[in-house]
């Protein structure tokens, strides 16, 4: 029996259902996740996968072959990707998430998840927000696009130490929203662009003791909508 640590997924190949080995890949991403153990990688070949995936508390990496051609279609039934069970250092990389329908249609990160890394991911045309991070810590978004979602491009709720680096949000209802009951703290936006969203770029309901730092970024209408959060405008290019 194949035992990893890399689990292979290749739905479009049309092979009989396998055991996840390199010569007998699974046909769904969730099958790869279910077979994996913490520390493993689920390697996904290019293609469109109509499913909704859940990390189910596993500290794993799900990595697509190519961001443009490796697509998860949520079929309007739930969030496309859910990471909400206390995962430590999970990774999502080289994928497009589309056609989800939930409070966060594209990507939901919650449940005391720590140090979640999202790299080279597009979150496009989902119902409600594209990305929702709630009650976790140290999420890192690198080279992420959130576009044409019916809600916010991204919501950061009661989150600490979030970094958005080379993050782009456009064509959404709102560009981003930062708020929460336990208010977000130490949010950094670097080398990012937020523009062309229908009802503005930025909503923030933080407290005066929390900090939001913006560096080398273009935030359309950047200061409008800010409430009482301490904003550190670093070296950047902001459309005020």
Please, could you describe this protein's structure?
The protein is mainly β and 240 residues long. It has two domains: 39 residues, no CATH class; 188 residues, Pectate Lyase C-like (3 Solenoid). It is 3% helix and 45% strand. The strands form two sheets. Strands 1, 2, 3, 5, 6, 8, 10, 12, 14, 16, 17, 19, 20 and 21 form a 14-stranded parallel β-sheet that branches. It has a seven-stranded parallel β-sheet with strand order 4-7-9-11-13-15-18. The model has no long low-confidence stretch (mean pLDDT 89).
The assigned CATH architecture of the largest domain is: 3 Solenoid
What would CATH call the class of the largest domain? Mainly Beta
CATH-level-4 superfamily name of the largest domain: Single-stranded right-handed beta-helix, Pectin lyase-like
Shape: globular
How much of the sequence is in beta strands? 35-45%
What's the mean pLDDT score?
89
- The count of strands amounts to 21
Query: How far do the termini sit from each other?
Result: 59 Å
Annotation keywords:
240 residues, mainly beta, 14-stranded parallel sheet, seven-stranded parallel sheet, Pectate Lyase C-like
Architecture blueprint of SSEs:
Elements: E1 6-9, H1 29-35, E2 41-44, E3 47-50, E4 53-54, E5 61-64, E6 70-73, E7 81-83, E8 91-98, E9 101-109, E10 117-124, E11 127-134, E12 140-147, E13 152-157, E14 163-170, E15 174-179, E16 187-190, E17 193-195, E18 202-204, E19 211-215, E20 218-219, E21 230-233
Parallel strand pairs: 1-2, 2-5, 3-6, 4-7, 5-8, 6-8, 7-9, 8-10, 9-11, 10-12, 11-13, 12-14, 13-15, 14-16, 14-17, 15-18, 16-19, 17-20, 19-21
């Amino acid at each position: 029996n194949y035992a990893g640590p890399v689990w292979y997924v290749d739905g479009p190949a049309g092979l009989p259902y396998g055991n996840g080995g390199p010569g007998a890949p699974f046909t769904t991403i969730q099958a790869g996740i279910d077979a994996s153990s913490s520390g493993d990688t689920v390697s996904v070949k290019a293609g469109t996968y109509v499913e909704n995936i859940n990390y189910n508390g596993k500290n794993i990496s799900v990595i697509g072959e190519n961001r443009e051609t490796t697509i998860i279609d949520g079929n309007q039934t739930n969030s496309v990707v859910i990471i909400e069970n206390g995962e430590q250092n999970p990774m999502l990389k080289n994928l497009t998430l589309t056609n989800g329908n939930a409070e966060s249609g594209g990507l939901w990160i919650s449940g005391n998840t720590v140090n979640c890394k999202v790299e080279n991911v597009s979150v496009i045309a989902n119902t409600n927000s594209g990305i929702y991070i709630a009650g976790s810590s140290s999420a890192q978004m690198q080279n992420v696009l959130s576009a044409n979602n019916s809600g916010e491009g991204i919501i950061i709720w009661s989150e600490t130490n979030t970094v958005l680096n080379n993050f782009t949000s456009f064509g959404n209802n709102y560009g981003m929203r930062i708020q929460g009951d336990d208010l977000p703290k130490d949010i950094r936006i670097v080398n990012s662009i937020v523009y062309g969203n229908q009802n503005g770029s930025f909503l923030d309901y933080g407290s005066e003791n929390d900090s939001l730092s913006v560096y080398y970024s273009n935030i359309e209408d950047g200061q409008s909508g800010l409430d009482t959060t301490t904003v550190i405008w670093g070296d950047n290019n902001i459309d005020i």
